[in-house]
Specification:
This protein has 153 residues and is of the alpha/beta class. It has a single domain (11-139), classed as Aldolase class I (TIM Barrel, Alpha-Beta Barrel), CATH 3.20.20.70. It is 33% helix and 18% strand. It is built from five helices and four strands; from the N terminus they run H-E-H-E-H-E-H-E-H. The chain has a four-stranded parallel β-sheet, with no helix packed on it. Helix 2 packs parallel to helix 3. The radius of gyration is 18 Å and the shape is elongated. The chain binds iron/sulfur cluster. Residues 24, 26-28, 31, 33-34, 73-75, 108 line the site of iron/sulfur cluster.
């Protein structure tokens, strides 16, 4: 076989997840992705458990000493803590001995509380929080439909 294939097989490949598809609890004007207007439906669009397990099992079987998972959104925390507990449990179950597992998450930060903070610390997640002035006003209920900051307190 060509050496290109051999090289690819031995290169570490990370995985980026659109964790909850376009579901998000905010509605930034500049968003190019989410169309739910900050009102995700009652059923969050997260991956089915059986497919999650199948993927992690097969991915880990190809891990070359390292496995990395980047969780993005929409707003990935909408998947719920039980989803991420399931994911890290599957990672541990299927990782070959000695595999270094990395998890990073990119969030708008609005749903982080003490429980999430403890979870991230326990599993050593790298947490990226994106803040903009618009998001701060939206969280405080001061962003008008016309897209102007109305909250001055
Ligand atoms: S927080 Fe991110 S995903 Fe959600 S609406 Fe804003 S830019 Fe889009």
């Amino acid at each position: 076989m060509g050496c290109g294939v051999a090289t690819l097989e031995h290169r570490h490949v990370g995985v980026m997840w659109k964790t909850v598809s376009e579901d998000c609890n905010l509605a930034c004007d500049y968003c190019y992705y989410s169309t739910c207007g900050g009102k995700p439906g009652p059923k969050i669009n997260r991956i089915d458990s059986a497919i999650l397990e199948k993927f992690i099992k097969e991915y880990m079987a190809r891990a070359q000493g390292a496995a990395s998972f980047a969780w993005q959104g929409g707003e990935p925390l909408l998947a719920g803590m039980e989803f991420f507990e399931e994911a890290v449990s599957l990672q541990a179950r299927y990782a070959p001995k000695g595999t270094s597992i990395g998890n990073s998450i990119q969030t708008n930060g609005t749903l982080i509380n003490d429980r999430w903070a403890a979870f991230f610390k326990k599993y050593n997640f790298l947490v990226g929080v994106s803040w903009t002035v618009q998001r701060i006003f939206m969280m405080r209920g001061g962003w008008t439909r016309a897209g102007r900051a109305a909250f001055t307190g």
